């Protein structure tokens, strides 16, 4: 297996709101707030639901990786209830192997209310439910050992049982990547996260605000200096400034896409990470991996929700990644026809079959 993700198994409930809804409910735009079930239901009762989908930060990345043709899996805790069953079905529909045997829990499956304001920013209100009760017994050690990269999310980190699950997974991994997830998470767990970044993670994903908060600096140049000394891969998204990856003295950058019709920033970082890891596990350069991550994130922010409609995206990715193969194949086929006296019609059919193979669902 290429990549195994471990994260909060959360069902996303997507709603559009005005800015005053954020203010009136004492929420901070573009961050995540944890609430209990009663507060969650109270907020939801006044809203119109746009979409409900299996979510969670790492799960979104893993689905993106699966859509790009990678063999991937996921571990996340749900209850054997209606939402839990829908969550598992959603992953399996996307060809993600689910390494968790759900059972009826006292606490229901977790839910995240994603509030999208007119500026396309997303503010999250999360009832973790049973997802926040993950423990070391929920970790499939064989699945971890059989994956090339273990991918974790900062949202999952918490003292007690979740931390034990985190540490068990890291200790059995071949290579480990983690997303810092949210400024709220960084501020809450700063000493632990800093230790992970410095000593245990092979790959760290963060946005500019998260990484600057983590190491307490005001200038981005200080982030670059910090990353260069680590001997680990640090990947940072910078909004309109694009993205940068730092691995010792190697620094690669990628510009942000321009003139996009942005609808919803939900999943931008998740799909970026998925695209970057796709490049990495398929022997692409760091620069090429940044470009794939940027392409994925630029597409998902132009739709509502954190999952791509893959029927069109797959064709575009196959064309971009295999266009040289098409050219080489056409050249080879022409020579084959010239030397072997195949009919033009027969060669045309072979070429059409080849293109159809790479464009099919």
Question: Could you characterize what this model shows?
Answer:
It is a single chain. This protein is α/β, with parallel strands linked by helices. It has 2 domains: 3-7 and 55-105 and 131-308, UDP-N-acetylmuramoyl-L-alanine:D-glutamate ligase (3-Layer(aba) Sandwich); 318-359. 45% of the residues lie in helices and 19% in strands. The chain has helices at residues 19-24, 37-44, 57-67, 82-93, 141-145, 161-171, 183-188, 190-199, 208-214, 220-228, 268-281, 286-300, 310-340, 344-359; strands spanning 3-6, 10-16, 32-34, 49-55, 72-75, 97-98, 110-116, 122-127, 149-153, 176-179, 203-207, 233-237, 243-247, 250-254. It has a 9-stranded mixed β-sheet, sandwiched between helices. Strands 3-8-7-2-4 form a 5-stranded mixed β-sheet. Helix 6 links the parallel strand 9 (149-153) and strand 10. The model is unreliable at 311-343 and 353-361 (pLDDT under 50).
């Amino acid at each position: 297996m290429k990549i195994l993700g471990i994260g909060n198994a959360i069902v996303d409930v997507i709603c559009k709101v005005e800015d005053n809804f954020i203010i009136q409910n004492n929420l901070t735009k573009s961050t995540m707030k944890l609430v209990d079930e009663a507060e969650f239901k109270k907020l939801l009762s006044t809203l119109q639901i746009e979409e409900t989908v299996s979510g969670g930060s790492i799960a979104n990345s893993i689905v993106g990786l699966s859509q790009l043709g990678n063999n991937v899996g996921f571990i996340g805790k749900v209850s054997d209830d209606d939402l839990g069953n829908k969550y598992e079905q959603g992953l399996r529909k996307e060809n993600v192997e689910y390494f968790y045997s759900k059972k009826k829990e006292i606490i229901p499956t977790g839910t995240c209310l994603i509030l999208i304001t007119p500026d396309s920013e997303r503010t999250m209100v999360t009832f973790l439910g049973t997802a926040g009760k993950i423990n070391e017994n929920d970790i499939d050690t064989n699945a971890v050992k059989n994956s090339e990269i273990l991918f974790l999310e900062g949202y999952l980190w918490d003292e007690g049982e979740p931390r034990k699950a985190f540490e068990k997974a890291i200790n059995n991994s071949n290579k480990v990547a983690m997303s810092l997830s949210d400024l709220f998470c960084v501020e809450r767990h700063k000493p632990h996260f800093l230790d992970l970044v410095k000593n245990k993670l092979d790959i760290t994903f963060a946005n500019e605000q998260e990484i600057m908060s983590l190491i307490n600096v005001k200038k981005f140049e200080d982030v670059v200096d910090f990353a260069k000394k680590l001997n680990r891969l640090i990947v940072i998204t910078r909004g309109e400034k694009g993205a940068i990856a730092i691995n010792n003295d190697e620094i690669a950058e990628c510009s942000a896409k321009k003139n996009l019709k942005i609808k919803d920033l939900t999943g931008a970082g998740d799909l970026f990470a998925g695209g970057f890891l796709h490049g990495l596990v398929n022997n692409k350069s760091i620069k090429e991996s940044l470009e794939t991550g940027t392409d994925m994130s630029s597409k998902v922010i132009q739709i509502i929700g954190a999952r791509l409609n893959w029927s069109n995206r797959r064709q575009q990715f196959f064309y971009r990644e295999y266009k040289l193969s098409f050219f080489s194949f056409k050249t080879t086929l022409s020579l084959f026809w010239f030397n072997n006296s195949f009919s033009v019609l027969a060669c045309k059919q072979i070429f059409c079959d080849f293109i159809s193979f790479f464009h099919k669902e």
